[in-house]
Amino acid sequence: MAGLRIVAAIGLTLAVLALLGTDVTHMVAGAMAAMVSTFAIREKNLRGQAITIAWGFPVALAAVSLGALLHSRVVAGDLFFIALIFGAVYCRRFGDRGTALGLMGFQVYFVSLFVNATPDQLPILAGTLAVAFACSAAARFALVPETPQRVLGRLRGAFRARLAQLVTAQTRLLDAAPEDVDDVLDDLRHHTSRLHETALMIQGRLEDGARDTATASLIQRRIADAEISAERLGMLLLNARSAERADTLTLHLPHAPAPAAGKLLHHEDESTATLRRDLGALHLMVTRPADANRGAAVAQIRNRLLGYRDEERMPPGGTLAVQDVFRGIGEAARAVMGLRIALDGPQDESDDSPATTRSREELEAEDMSITGTVAMATEQEADEEEDDRSGLDRPTTRAAFQVAVGSGLAIVGGEFLSSQRWYWAVLTCWVVFLNTASTGEIVIKGYRRVLGTVLGVLAGVLLAGAVGNHTWSAFVLVLLCVFAAFFTAPLSYALMSFFVTAMLGLLYTLLNTYSFDVLVLRIEETALGAACGIIAAMLVLPVRTDHRTDELLATVLERLGDVVAGAVEQLSGGPAADLLDRARDLDTALDDLRASTKPLTHAIAPQRERRQTVRYLVALLETSAYHARSLAATAELVPYSKHVAADPRLGRAARRIAHNIDVLLAQVTATDDADLTGTVESGASIAAMLETDGLGVPAANTVTFRVLRHLQRLDEGISGLARPLGVPVGPRT
After folding, report:
1. What average pLDDT does the chain have?
2. Which residues are bridge partners to 731 per DSSP?
3. In this structure, is the dihedral angle defined by the CA atoms of residues 663, 664, 668 and 673, taken in order, positive or negative?
4. Alpha-carbon distance 504 to 561, whole Å?
């Protein structure tokens, strides 16, 4: 949608400028200004977007005016450019609007350099900017509108599609031959991860997209239920075809081998056929349109699957692991029904079975509880960490100094390469700092920028030769390259750089300044800019990658501890808390950690052993986060469920987990001269720790037993973190 909106803005700008008889040079300037004024805006609500566009025009006008006035004053122009870069980066501390206005100021000044603007061109450049910003607003608010409600609606549809894809992958796992299991398991990991990413995206849009806070909380709960139940179903299927209980880590560690095969389900028997049929039925429940729920056939499917939540309705035969899969299908069906009610409103109840009626009553009770406690979730403020920092410790201040120094180096070096195209080095230095937070991230982004530029130059040569002097053909190809660049940006920065460079070759053709030497110079300036950015990141207030990952790892451990402590307290009979918000905070922190470790796990990273260790550590944390989410979801059922009762013993059983998290956190946050004596405790299983009170372990297939299983997996995962973090493990003293 962002790509379509930008293409619409550029296309409309070109059409208006052509009708006004504007020359090609200023049409290029207008197209670039329209692109900048469209992609720079990140605010979610329409009012904020309109205000930013309104402020953006005078900022852009000032930038292009200064660029034209300083055209012949080389030293003054360079000094102003460095000051502008510093200010544009520093403005990021003021949120989305500050980021957008800084980006517009920098990019429009760059446009003035690109078209070689002079003072006598200012009147027509001002008119061109006015047309570009007006067309950008028209594309945003009329041609390709984006409202928080529309975005949330598309994300909800995407979540259903991802959920359906995951169920399909689980069906493939059921039928996979032994030699195909590893490939199918990789596919299952991929779809599980994508479902989780979509859930996080919905979480980020609920505040603005839902009609009220109660609706947002309800959707958040139902999305979490569906995600957890779907992931659990995948684990149960993996257990059913394994010789022993599979480790949850298998679903989170890339390319981990499949567990040893046990009583395989790929051969045809009654249980396999029934499971295949019911997975297909679950897929139908996910994908069926809302009005189709009135059909008798769909109601029959729903009633059958929800019946698996009652022991007496379970299909006969099959191992205990297979019976668990049927129970998992029943819980997933309940989650899907709750999701449909939350997203589509009340459903027809005329054909409900007793099991379906009971599930509806449970969902209604949960909805009432969510509505009654929704005020608890409205006081939390985000992004407090940024406010707690000051001076050079503030990331935006540090980045501003780094970019300013790197840009100064790029200007000096770029002038040696070319007195006319030096600004390409500055642009590269600028972009390698965008959305990066450590030296390693800057190195990887610079490498990808250079790689994409080299390949893009080759494409630019071919496109320029094909277009020749056909102006409108070149503009059409420019629009295609723009769309491709923004479409591929979330997937690959190298691909985006490829399409941007190919587009620039076409723009040079339009400006009659194209030559192969110009495109080769583009590679040289890009490599120089990337090198200057890396040098500045290493020498000016550097943030080492391992320091950054340690900070984020500490945040993950803190939030993991908060979720587990809150869930166990509520499961033990303590007061209700907003556990799902805590769980989503944990997911967000883990997502940040995963992104920060990419330089350490990249193919060009020199230390192979460290790459494997980092992947293992992140997989352990993802596994622990899954079990923490499951505990939180179960704990929130305690106040109103007839099937989930508080058990005071759970608090005692979870003390070892809390202790071990504290030990790991102390290790991660310790200074070099700290004296660490903590030890990660090991010993009897969590379930065995309950046997000392004489009441015994809860029976299998009960909710309490499931809670213990999650706690046990959490205990194992947290203990597993000790080895990569260098913490000793020993029995409790």
Report:
1. 84
2. 682
3. positive
4. 50
Map residue 731 onto helix, strand or coil: strand
Query: pTM to 2 decimals?
Result: 0.83
* Mean pLDDT on 615-640: 85
End-to-end CA distance of the chain: 59
Q: What are phi and psi of 13, to 5 degrees?
A: -60, -45
Helix/strand/coil for 451: helix
Q: Which whole-number Å values give the CA distances from 676 to 560, 649, 670, in the listed order?
A: 22, 31, 8
**pLDDT score for 17:** 95
Q: What is the spatial distance between Cα 648 and Cα 572, in angstroms, rounded to a whole number?
A: 4
Q: How far, in Å, CA of 52 to CA of 46, rounded?
A: 10
Give per-residue burial for 492-522: e unless 16+ CB within 10 Å, then b.
ebbbbbbbbbbbbbbbbbbeeebeeebbebb
Report d(CA 87, CA 81) in Å as an integer: 10
User: Is 85 exposed, middle or buried, given 0-12, 13-18 or 19+ CB atoms closer than 10 A?
Assistant: buried
- Provide the 10 A C-beta neighbour count for residue 274: 18
| CB 63, CB 84: distance < 8 Å | yes
- Residue 506 near residue 467 (C-beta atoms within 8 A): yes
Strand partners, 681: 730
Q: Which amino acid is at 686?
A: I
Angle (deg, nearest 10), helices 471-488 and 2-19: 160
Helix and strand numbers (H, E) in the chain are: 29, 2
Q: Is the pLDDT of residue 398 over 80?
A: yes
Distances in Å between the Cα of 584 and the Cα atoms of 158, 210, 303, 556, 630 are 19, 17, 32, 11, 12
Q: Which two tokens stand for residue 691?
A: 């046997």
Neighbours of 30 (CB within 10 A): 29
What's the CA gap between 303 and 307, in Å, rounded? 6
CA angle 171, 177, 178 (to 5 degrees): 120
Q: What does the pLDDT read at residue 656?
A: 85
**Chain centroid to CA 132:** 31
pLDDT over 90 percentage in the chain: 34
Give dist(CA 395, CA 97) in Å, integer. 17
Rounded Cα gap, residues 468 and 453, in angstroms: 22
pLDDT in tens, 425-484: 998 998 888 888 888 888 898 988 999 999 988 888 888 778 877 888 888 998 999 999
Q: Phi and psi of 41, rounded to 5°?
A: -80, 125
Hey, is 682 helix, strand or coil? strand
Half-sphere exposure of 307 (CA within 13 A, CB side): 14
The predicted structure's pLDDT at residue 381: 39
Task: Quickly count: other Cβ atoms within 10 Å of residue 730's Cβ.
Answer: 11
- Tokens representing 188? 């299952």
β-partners of residue 729 are: 680
* Separation between Cα atoms, residue 534 and residue 578, nearest integer Å: 43
- The pLDDT tens digits for 224-267 are 899 999 999 998 888 888 767 777 778 888 877 777 766 545 45
Name the phi and psi angles at 654, rounded to 5.
-95, 0
**Is 686's pLDDT higher than 60?**
yes
In the chain, % of residues over pLDDT 70: 88
* 3-class secondary structure per residue, 600-635: HHCCCCCCHHHHHHHHHHHHHHHHHHHHHHHHHHHH
d(CA 685, CA 698): 14
The residue assigned the tokens 């449909």 is 340
Radius of gyration for the alpha carbons in the chain, expressed in angstroms and rounded:
29
